[in-house]
């Protein structure tokens, strides 16, 4: 009932700002891609020519953040516009999949802009609700879904099935199941490799865009590259799953490193294919395309992070609340609207997709979000850009942690709620090497912000992490 009321209010608030021709919105999400995994962010060995071109033709953000340092909560922030102190899904649930499902009262980006006539598709990886749960994409505003519902299922790039809507789609791959069950689901690795899931996602995205070209659309293309197949890494020793090593085949590197590089270049190629299709269809100038990653880089395929330095100047990786775990690449492309070859230090995060999409669609942002539109930055109007008072994160695994950024200051506390607070000046120390814990004014302010941001949730406590 709460969700219905919110959607009705959004419909009544629809604005004619973009009514003549509402822009299409495409958000492409890489999986476990590091801040410095792309050439335009400093990568020297892995080739990403299409994403580098996308940055040259648009805006490259230097201070943009994922919603979390692991998968499900980051995607929850992206979809709901609420930071981790407020949203419902605050962690990977360790197999309790209903705990990891969005609720009926949660309002997603797809639901918020549906009232403005947008059709929405999710192609790829979801992780926020299974068949029969309220978080299923078709119950959360999406008109079309094809891909993985379960994030552990998504580890396997040659699965024996995917889902289209609520229906299982069997594939000719043959899978060796891993012994561990996660949320009632066994993952594994393929012993017979016929159909690569990334190829299916790229094909579906191209077809859906062409089929929906006459209507304003929102495409959430949630790729799994370059996430590891964790089960394959434990079972056959290499979790970097890709059809071939391509241009890296002759490199004197271990196979997991060749695979890691090839996965990123494979993703780069398919992003380019989508941009090309939008151009061929005459949609590019009316389509905002964004590209980012759900958290920092991994080493779960037995790849060596020292080879590619995926975090670049930043400290930490996936599962850290240091910058390397949460600061991510972010590129925005909109020919004819975004001035090319820009670099922006605007501080934003995944939750801002909600307000940005709503402003583009001409509807009000749903209440109770932590979202600020960055459309002024995209339109080259920095003087009109509102800034966040702070950004906030929580992490319930291991010793737990919480972090907050305000201005150029960043604070981390572990364990969360009770640990000692570290403070860093990111303007001088982006690698977070020098802890300014003696600055009691900063420490006290960080503590106040953390207390303000954290709303207790019965599903997410330190004894249920």
From TrEMBL:
Residues 23-363 form the Sulfatase N-terminal domain. InterPro entries: Alkaline_phosphatase_core_sf, GAG_Ulvan_Degrading_Sulfatases, Sulfatase_N. The keyword Lipoprotein does not apply. Pfam families: Sulfatase. Keywords: Hydrolase, Signal. GO terms for molecular function: arylsulfatase activity. Gene3D superfamilies: 3.30.1120.10, Alkaline Phosphatase, subunit A (3.40.720.10). It comes from the Bacteria. It is an enzyme of class 3 (hydrolase). The keyword Chaperone does not apply. Its EC number is 3.1.6.1. Residues 1-19 form the signal peptide. This is Arylsulfatase.
């Amino acid at each position: 009932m709460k969700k219905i009321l919110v959607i009705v209010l959004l419909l009544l608030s629809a604005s004619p700002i973009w009514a003549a021709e509402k822009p299409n919105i495409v958000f492409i999400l890489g999986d476990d891609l590091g801040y410095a995994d792309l050439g335009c962010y400093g990568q020297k060995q892995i080739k990403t020519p299409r994403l580098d071109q996308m940055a040259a033709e648009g805006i490259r953000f230097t201070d943009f953040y994922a919603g979390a340092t692991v998968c499900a909560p980051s995607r929850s922030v992206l979809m709901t516009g609420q930071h981790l102190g407020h949203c419902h899904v605050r962690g990977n649930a360790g197999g309790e999949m209903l705990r990891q499902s969005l609720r009926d009262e949660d309002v997603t980006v797809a639901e918020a802009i549906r009232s403005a006539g947008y059709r929405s598709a999710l192609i790829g990886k979801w992780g926020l609700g299974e068949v029969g749960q309220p978080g299923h994409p078709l119950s959360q505003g999406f008109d079309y879904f094809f891909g993985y519902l379960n994030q552990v299922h998504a580890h396997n790039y040659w699965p024996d099935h995917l889902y289209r809507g609520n229906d299982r789609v069997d594939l000719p791959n043959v899978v060796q199941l891993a012994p561990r069950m996660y949320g009632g689901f066994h993952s594994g690795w393929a012993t017979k490799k016929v159909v690569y899931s990334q190829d299916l996602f790229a094909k579906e995205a191209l077809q859906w865009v062409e089929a929906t070209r006459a209507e304003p659309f929102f495409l959430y293309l949630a790729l799994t590259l370059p996430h590891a197949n964790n089960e394959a890494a434990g079972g056959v020793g290499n979790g970097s799953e890709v059809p071939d090593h391509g241009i890296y085949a002759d490199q004197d590197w271990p196979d997991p490193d060749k695979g890691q590089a090839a996965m990123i270049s494979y993703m780069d190629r398919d992003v380019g294919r989508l941009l090309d299709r939008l151009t061929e269809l005459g949609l590019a100038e009316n389509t905002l395309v964004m590209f980012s990653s759900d958290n920092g880089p991994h080493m779960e395929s037995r790849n060596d992070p020292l080879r590619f330095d995926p975090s670049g100047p930043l400290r930490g990786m996936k599962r850290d609340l240091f910058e390397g775990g949460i600061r991510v690449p972010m590129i925005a492309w909109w020919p004819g609207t975004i001035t090319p070859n820009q670099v922006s230090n605007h501080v934003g995060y995944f939750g801002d997709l909600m307000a940005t999409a709503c402003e583009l669609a001409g509807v009000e942002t749903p209440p109770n979000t932590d979202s600020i539109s960055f459309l002024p930055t995209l339109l080259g109007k920095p003087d009109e850009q509102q800034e966040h008072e702070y950004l906030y994160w929580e992490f319930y695994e291991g010793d737990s942690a919480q972090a907050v950024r305000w201005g150029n200051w960043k604070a981390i506390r572990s364990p969360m709620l009770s640990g000692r607070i570290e403070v860093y000046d990111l303007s001088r120390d982006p690698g977070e090497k020098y802890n300014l814990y003696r600055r009691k004014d900063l420490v006290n302010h960080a503590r106040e912000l953390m207390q303000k941001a954290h709303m207790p949730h019965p599903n997410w406590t330190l004894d249920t992490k």
